[in-house]
Amino acid sequence: MTTLNTSPRADGFHMPAEWAPQTQTWMIWPERPDNWRLGGKPAQAAHVAVAKAIARFEPVTVGVSAAQYENACAHLNVPNIRVVEISSDDAWVRDSGPTFVINDSGEVRGVNWDFNAWGGFEGGLYFPWNRDRQVGSKILEIERIARYHTPGFVLEGGSIHVDGEGTLITTAECLMNRNRNPHLSREEIEDVLRSHLAVDKIIWLPDGLFNDETDGHVDNFCCYVAPGEVLLAWTDDEQNPNYVRCHAAMNVLATSTDAKGRPFVVHKMPIPGPMFATQQECDGVDKVAGSQDRNPSERLAGSYVNFLIVNGGIIAPSFDDPMDAQAKDILQNLFPQHEVVMVPGRELLLGGGNIHCLTQQQPAPRKA
Ligand code: KQY
User: Could you name the active-site residues (predicted)?
Assistant: First the structure.
């Protein structure tokens, strides 16, 4: 398919909000044994539960390696789930996949960002990452969707959230990290976001959640729930390492307006835990030089904010935590038109992320 030399904004395309109608959700089968314990088997079961939860609301396509194709097909052999062979380095399609953009005629295109496994040789999570780098264009080829490419500009989908009305939220911890685009200033990074997502205003939260191995992806910390309204991971406990981060983000949001001049309504979402991997869980992960070490003393960056919006549904992680029921109530109140479905998220968290990081929604072609 065509790679376009223009920009989405110049061509009249913008990134829609996650609640816009969707054609399907993309996922990628988890299997690398130096990230997922026990050869990925517990994570695969958790992944199947997420795929099946989404498939109640809309089609799901799961990309899988040739080696795992037959196994994935056997586990995902249910209506509304399609399995296609896509080689990858890991399962985080939010970050390796394309960002879809749409125009007023309802045409959908894709932005294929550069990818360096969350930091390349300066704190990245594995090497090599060349197959992940190809995931975006493979998805767009399968869907016959034209693409924009940003060679040399690294960005992961989990590091941005938009309202579809001109405002983008991100964290400086990630986008300004010298392991992503050290050759660019903040203004130059903003320029790429403006031209490729057609946003007019960028809200920079200082940091994401403590110990998030993505360098503070916003999708684990703060997300849009409606235009002008965000949900922010929150703690009032001064001993919690997230206390300063949450309050700094609140300060930015409370003193900012969005692209339409609206002040932000900020809803608070309690942070579960503290959660840690057990020694047994860590022992189940293969030890490979250059891959993320797993250690029971490291606090896990668990967050209920890491949920996915699908057509009529909210797919959110639960953690077998006392906060689970409250988190579900908060989401249900914020999304009264959606059914909130919680899926166990601990196995996904042990791999370094959660449901939003493991999914990529594809907006539906539609007239504005
Ligand atoms: O949270 C994400 N968006 C990705 C997490 C990657 C973790 C790799 N171990």
Answer: 357 (amidino-cysteine intermediate)
